[in-house]
Amino acid sequence: DQQVKQNSPSLSVQEGRISILNCDYTNSMFDYFLWYKKYPAEGPTFLISISSIKDKNEDGRFTVFLNKSAKHLSLHIVPSQPGDSAVYFCAASALADKLIFGTGTRLQVFP
Amino acid sequence: DSGVTQTPKHLITATGQRVTLRCSPRSGDLSVYWYQQSLDQGLQFLIQYYNGEERAKGNILERFSAQQFPDLHSELNLSSLELGDSALYFCASSASWGGQETQYFGPGTRLLVL
């Protein structure tokens, strides 16, 4: 049972445009959500997080939006840069429990 | 560099064998997590240790076991290996425990079972 789903395995965006990565979840008990970025041959690195009491969190070019009623979150990258090309994982946790990760979306930013 | 080290980077072995993966957490971190990433799969949580004690368990097979030592490094033991155990194994660490703790990941160990 996949509690955290990233239905788009890949996304291709032109440099300078907006990248939108989506994530859906099924467990209404999730109260904390994170995005991790992974380059080849490296481990995932933390990017940005959001608590369920918020609907938006911004950090520079990265913004995460949370829609609790739709059980949906998204990561916006504006403007996209070639260095953003990586695999992005969303993750969620419930009541300070373990993290549940999605399957990842591979973002490619082309010139 | 996350500060989390994992050895070895690559491991090739045969079915039925046993291997040990090692992880050293970031300085000062008390929690260690182990994850498995198979082809086209997300990161599957296996097990977490906090200050030497098992804190949480995920979908870890009975053939797998782990421990965290007094110096806080951790080892993941995989025995009676099967072809399906071929995967990337990541270790992560955090200062404390809980889903809101930022986890810092090591570079992973790529295991290939032939």
Give a written overview of the molecule:
The complex is a heterodimer of chains A (111) and B (114). Chain A is mostly beta strands. Chain A is 0% helix and 57% strand. Chain A is built from no helices and eleven strands. In chain B, the strands form two sheets. In chain B, strands 2, 4, 5, 6, 9, 10 and 11 form a seven-stranded mixed beta sheet that branches. Chain B has a four-stranded antiparallel beta sheet with strand order 1-3-8-7, with no helix packed on it. In chain B, a hairpin with a 6-residue loop joins β4 (31-37) and β5. Classes of the chains: A mainly beta (111), B mainly beta (114).
List the helices and strands and how they pair.
The complex is a heterodimer of chains A (111) and B (114).
Chain A: E1 4-5, E2 10-14, E3 19-25, E4 30-38, E5 45-51, E6 56-59, E7 62-67, E8 72-77, E9 86-94, E10 100-101, E11 105-110
Parallel strand pairs in A: 2-11
Antiparallel strand pairs in A: 1-3, 3-8, 4-5, 4-9, 6-7, 7-8, 9-10, 9-11
Chain B: E1 5-7, E2 10-13, E3 19-24, E4 31-37, E5 44-50, E6 53-57, E7 64-68, E8 74-78, E9 87-94, E10 104-105, E11 109-113
Parallel strand pairs in B: 2-11
Antiparallel strand pairs in B: 1-3, 3-8, 4-5, 4-9, 5-6, 7-8, 9-10, 9-11
What is the chain-wise order of helices and strands of chain A?
EEEEEEEEEEE
Q: Regarding quaternary structure, how should these chains be classified?
A: heterodimer
How far apart are the termini of chain B? 31 Å
What integer value in Å does the Rg of chain A equal? 13 Å
The 3D shape of chain B can be described as: globular
Name the descriptors.
heterodimer; A: mainly beta; six-stranded mixed β-sheet; five-stranded antiparallel β-sheet; globular; B: 114 residues; four-stranded antiparallel β-sheet; 11 strands; 0% helix
